[in-house]
Design brief:
The structure holds 3 protein chains of 3 kinds. Chain A is an alpha+beta fold. Chain A is built from 14 helices and 12 strands. The radius of gyration of chain C is 19 Å and the shape is globular. Classes of the chains: A alpha+beta, B alpha/beta, C alpha+beta. Chain A: Pfam families: Thiolase_C (PF02803), Thiolase_N (PF00108).
């Protein structure tokens, strides 16, 4: 913990906008990250009447990113209705990218560096970057460096027909080669999370999000895109029976009975989101009433490479540190927004916080953090229902939870997002 | 959506159209072509009002003629306000006739008169001869409008007893009717019933006269609503566009194009008015009830859902929003409420019993609401569009569409901006004397004439 | 190198027809046996290419697996010498043991000394121990013993020896998954110089009794060592090759860190049979991993 006497000011969450999330290779199959991010920004600009305005900064990013998109967020700003004099920067923290972008804008506001900014994120699993094979890339780079004909010939002579096949991105971890689902299947088995619990969590997510759509909760959080006006993964008619009928998708090679299915795991999704944040003064000057405030954030990471901790367990470590710094316990929170990468990630985090052994040995706590009231968990559904366009999830959650606090008059929310690379980012949002 | 006939009739087929005596619509001058024509204005009539307006025109930079002339003219202003007997009409009427050949394209005839009482509820002391004379002037104007050629129009300004002839809204109505903003308004009497409103110059009304005003436009995503939003923004208003969430992408595009704010909301929601008040968060100076739907079906085949949804969107929501905004104290000073009616609501239309009921309802609503809004210095009016070239009318069968276009005196469909201009005019601070009325923007369509 | 292999193949064929002249084995194996010495500079570009191929980070120190490759040609030529009593071709690399005392840095001139350390009996034939030492400026940096098995070959005078039992293996849950393709072998052959046809040519592989091309055992070992991310300057690395990886294949991997011992196992995820088992022992456990990490380390 740092001893920073520097005065800060609150960073207000004014609102958000996203495009409806769509399952990969469907309605948004031909839209690029830049297209979707621009559209999400334009909807936000329209919602707050910011056309032509120069904002302090826009932060954003994508997990599946083309090499040409080195300036993805800036390009999206240029294509949007914002003033072209609005600067932007890209960042990345895998699935936590959107939240990290929002947190970094909030911190700049808190420090007085900017008055207003946008945190954003986008991902397309459909319009994913395809690279040349590592071998072909090596040969091409070698050719580029070659000065003599013989060097060129030597480089080309290494080429094999199979090298010409393109390299598709996968969601395998770079260091382990295992997919995220396979990693989580190990964790799920270790914690003994049951299939029924996972399916029940997925069902609640779908039902709550369907209800939120029904009562117009997303009317001022989402702008339609390409003819889609609701998240296409959402299944309002899901039942325990329909979820229970699905075959296991991950963990089939493990000794434990596999429990993770397509129903209790998030599908590949396309989408983009954005969150508008500002100082209280800027909001007042623009006649905008803040929804909530982004108070603090904490990241954590775990050693998953050696298998000493599960790939997606980092939030379990981040949350106690965040609570300790802010002098809070679970009892101080009205809402828990835990990103549903898989139903079992949420359940393992909660099991970990309830486990005396885990809290003592891994977290160094005297007592477990305790249980989380399921009624306070993801009250408007989460990624199992909405889908999970990696970098867009943070913006979806922050805007939704801020609005939820405003709407219900509740006070405080905990936000938690697990990410590839054994990382996790958590944050506190207060009314 | 393009009116190919009008293009052909003004292009390669011009001679043929003339020989065959076919309708020969001309491209209308609109605000983007300039507000006012430069040719002199002929002011007919010998009374005080005619003199006063000759001076007002001069003060506003117009060239004025007080006697018939062989010069080309941009407009004729005819003052019948002092006529007492039907025989008093003839002198000025014939002078108008004499001046018609001197009018340039897209010129104007504007007839000034005092209000006649033709509804059963009239003051007991109404003089029959005077009332006949006053109503006669309107009849003259209406027929003359049918005779106008070359994109020219004839309209009336009807001033209630007790309201000075040079009241702010009479002058304001003159500038509107004289300008290209009234391109598709013809054969219409504009009633000025009070002396309220702030006087405005011709130049001011052609510029950013809504500066600093906040306008809410429902159904603003596309079509007429988008044109209304754009026109109000052009005239200086800050616009909040409202449309259903499903139209949010079009709404965002429209609002970003004019620097407006998008509010995704279903106006049929029970608390739509309260939500608008809360979201806008500042006093609403202008509210345009534009959102509307059609669910056409012969009454014999009408399903309850079709009937109910049209009533819910087109009129019930407006009544509820007005009430909630008033209760919330959401109005600015001297608010302007403008509601979209339809010529179907005036004349009726086959297959549109539900739609006509809702739109006639709008006309009834504004008439009955005028007093309530007058209490806070506001006005409420309706605009009834005729055949307007939109995505919706583009889907009509070709023949029906052609007939609808040519049965108007201007022999063409109007554009969304024509409706928007009328609304911006009614929203003006200077239009405070006009309330409870329905202004038709129909090119003097035969329907409902 | 290819020429070395051709020579090895030629001498192997000859030895099958006419076994090498019997003589005292101390002339070809043991402390008095001839040594091959060669000095190579650890060229940064060459080492980097090797690192990229086996998953080592490109950095200022040289992976021991690169050093192994530098000694390989010399060892092959020793094994193919006319007076060597067993055929080089068909020998199987069974275990490898290597100790790093000090890291070699890129740019260093490394002197590799290679000799046959022992020829000993083995239940399935004869085991040949090839020794390699790597020195920089006269200081010993790395010592290596490579154990090859010449199946079905009997060498008179071989030292009697009971080889260690194979480590029993039961497949655990994988922590990694590697996709290995023929291209993997092509690339490793290029960066290591080991162009043994069983890795590069399907027909050649079949001729030696494999179902198809197999990946270099030392590639699997090198990648396993890279995965262990050992940061200690001094360590001992033991590798046991069990079954070859026929290309293409996806293999299961588990890296397990203990306090002083890290194990990396590679096996076939379909039948659970091991391909390669390895362990790295460091002086202290603080160099890498977590103290309380799970360990299935073999003591």
């Amino acid at each position: 913990m740092t001893q920073s006497p520097q005065p800060t000011r609150p960073a207000a969450i004014l609102g958000g906008n996203r495009i409806p999330f769509a399952r990969a290779h469907k309605q948004y199959a031909r839209a690029s990250n830049q297209d979707m991010l621009t559209s999400a920004l334009d909807g936000l600009v329209a919602r707050f009447g910011l056309a032509g305005e120069r904002l302090g900064e826009v932060a954003g990013g994508a997990v599946l990113k083309h090499s040409r998109d080195l300036n993805l967020t800036r390009e999206a700003v240029l294509g949007s209705a914002l003033s072209p004099e609005t600067p932007a920067f890209d960042l990345g923290q895998a699935c936590a990218t959107g939240l990290e972008a929002t947190v970094s804008i909030a911190q700049k506001i808190r420090l007085g560096q900017i008055d207003v900014g946008i945190g954003s994120g986008v991902d397309s699993a459909s319009d994913a970057p395809i690279a040349v094979s590592e071998e072909l890339r090596g040969v091409l780079l070698e050719l580029n460096r070659a000065k003599t004909m013989s060097q060129r010939l030597r480089a080309v002579s290494r080429l094999r027909p199979s090298d010409l096949a393109p390299a598709l991105p996968d969601n395998g971890e770079a260091r382990t080669g295992l997919s995220m689902g396979e990693h989580q299947a190990i964790t799920t088995a270790e914690w003994g999370i049951s299939r029924e619990d996972q399916d029940a969590l997925a069902l609640a997510s779908h039902q709550r999000m369907a209800a939120a759509w029904e009562r117009g909760f997303f009317d001022d959080l989402v702008t339609p895109y390409l003819g889609v006006s609701r998240d296409t993964n959402l299944r309002a008619d899901s039942t325990m029976e329909s979820l229970g009928a699905l075959k296991p998708a991950f963990g089939r090679g493990l000794s434990a009975t596999p429990t993770m299915t397509a129903g209790n795991s998030t599908p590949l999704t396309d989408g983009a989101s954005s969150v508008l944040l500002s100082s209280q003064e800027w909001a007042a000057d623009h006649g905008i009433e803040p929804l909530a405030y982004l108070v603090d954030a904490e990241a954590a990471a775990v050693d998953f490479v050696t298998g000493s901790e599960g790939l997606l367990m980092a939030p379990a470590y981040a949350v106690p540190r965040l609570l300790a710094r802010n002098g809070l316990t679970f009892a101080d929170f009205d809402v828990f927004e835990i990103h549903e990468a898989f139903a079992s990630t949420v359940l393992t985090h909660m099991a970990a916080w309830e486990s005396e052994e885990f809290c003592r040995e891994k977290l160094g706590l005297d007592a477990p953090l305790g249980p989380i009231d399921r009624d306070k968990l993801n009250p408007n559904g989460s990624s199992l229902a909405a889908g999970h366009p990696f970098a867009a999830t943070g913006g979806r959650i922050i805007a939704s939870v801020a609005k939820h606090l405003k709407e219900t008059g509740q006070r405080r929310a905990l936000v938690s997002i697990c990410a590839a690379g054994g990382q996790g980012l958590t944050a506190i949002v207060e009314a | 959506m393009t009116d190919r006939y009008t293009k052909l009739a003004n292009g390669p087929l011009k001679a043929l159209v003339k020989t065959l005596g076919l309708p020969s619509p001309v491209p209308l001058r609109r605000h983007s072509d300039g507000a006012y024509l430069s040719e002199p204005v002929l002011v007919l009539g010998a009374g005080a009002a005619a003199d006063a307006y000759a001076q007002i025109l001069l003060d506003n930079g117009f060239e004025v003629r007080r006697k018939p002339t062989s010069e080309k003219l941009s407009a004729v202003l005819a003052f019948f306000d002092e006529a007492q007997e039907p025989t008093d009409l003839s002198e000025i009427a014939l002078e108008i006739g004499g001046a018609l050949r001197g009018l340039v394209r897209c010129s104007r005839v504007i007839v000034f008169s005092r209000d006649a009482h033709i509804s059963p509820e009239r003051p007991a002391d109404t003089d029959p001869a005077l009332n006949a004379t006053r109503n006669g002037a309107v009849g003259l104007m209406r027929s003359l409008a049918h005779e106008m050629r070359g994109g020219s129009t004839a309209n009336g300004i009807v001033v209630s007893d007790g309201v000075p002839m040079d009241a702010p809204s009479v002058v304001s109505a003159l500038w509107f009717l004289l300008s290209s903003k009234s391109a598709y308004v013809s054969g219409q009497p504009l009633h000025v019933t009070t002396a309220h409103g702030e006087a405005a110059t011709a130049e001011a009304l052609a510029g950013a006269h809504l500066d600093g005003r906040l306008a809410v436009v429902t159904g603003a995503a596309r079509g007429i609503g988008a044109a209304i939003a754009a026109t109000l923004a052009r005239d200086g208003a800050t616009v909040v566009g409202v449309d259903v969430p499903q139209a949010g992408d079009a709404l965002a595009r429209t609002m970003n194009g004019i620097g407006g704010t998008a509010l995704q909301l279903d106006i049929t929601a029970e608390d739509a008015g309260r939500v608008i008040a809360q979201r806008v968060g500042e006093p609403i100076d202008i509210l345009v009830h534009n959102a509307g739907i059609t669910r056409d079906r012969m009454l014999a085949n009408m399903e309850a859902s079709r009937w109910d949804s049209v009533i819910a969107v087109n009129i019930a929501s407006q009544l509820r929003m007005n009430t909630q905004l008033t209760e919330a104290g959401a109005w600015g000073s001297a608010p302007r409420i403008i509601s979209l009616a339809s010529t179907s609501g005036i004349a009726g239309n086959r297959g549109q019993t539900n739609y006509a009921a809702s739109k006639a309802g709008v006309i009834g609503m504004v008439a009955a609401s005028a007093d309530r809004f007058a209490a806070q210095g506001g006005t409420i009016n309706a605009v009834a569009p005729g055949f307007i070239e939109t995505e919706m009318t583009a889907k009509m069968p070709t023949l029906t569409r052609e007939v609808a276009r040519r049965v108007a005196s201007l022999q063409q469909g109007g554009l969304p901006v024509d409706v928007a201009e009328a609304i911006a005019f009614l929203a003006a601070q200077s239009s405070g004397g006009i309330s409870g009325t329905t202004l038709r923007v129909c090119g003097q369509n035969l329907v409902g004439a | 190198m290819l020429r070395t292999y051709l020579a090895a193949a030629g001498s192997s064929v000859l030895k099958r027809i006419r076994p090498a002249a019997a003589g005292p084995l101390s002339r070809v194996a043991g402390p008095e046996s001839p040594r091959r010495t060669e000095t190579v500079t650890a060229d940064p570009q060459t080492v980097a290419e090797f690192c990229r191929a086996v998953g080592e980070p490109v950095r200022n120190t040289v992976p021991v697996t690169w050093l192994h490759a530098q000694g390989f040609a010399a060892s092959l030529s020793l094994l193919s010498a006319p007076d060597f009593p067993a055929p080089a071709m068909g020998m199987v690399h069974v275990t490898n043991s290597l100790t790093q005392l000090h890291p070699v840095r890129v740019g260093d001139a490394v002197t590799a000394t290679v000799w046959i350390d022992a020829i000993r009996t083995h239940p399935k034939g004869t085991e040949i121990v090839v020794a390699a030492a790597f020195d920089v400026d006269g200081r010993r940096c790395v010592d290596e013993r490579c154990h090859y098995l010449a199946k079905g070959v009997r060498v008179d005078g071989a030292t009697p020896h009971d080889p260690a039992e194979r480590t029993p293996f039961e497949a655990p849950d994988a922590t990694m998954s590697w996709r290995l393709t023929p291209r993997t072998a092509d690339t490793y052959a290029r960066v290591s110089g080991d162009v043994n046809p069983i890795h590069l040519n399907g027909l050649a592989a079949k001729a030696f009794g494999f179902r198809g091309r197999i990946v270099h055992g030392m590639y699997t070992a090198a990648r396993a060592l890279a995965s262990a991310q050992i940061r200690a300057d001094a360590f001992t690395w033991d590798v046991e090759f069990a079954t070859p990886v026929v290309l293409p294949s996806t293999v299961a991997v588990r890296v397990a860190h203990g306090s002083a011992l890290t194990t990396v196992d590679v096996w076939n995820p379909r039948d659970g049979r091991p391909h390669m088992l390895s362990s790295i022992r460091t002086e202290s456990g603080t160099e890498n991993g977590t103290e309380n990490g799970t360990s299935n380390g073999r003591q």
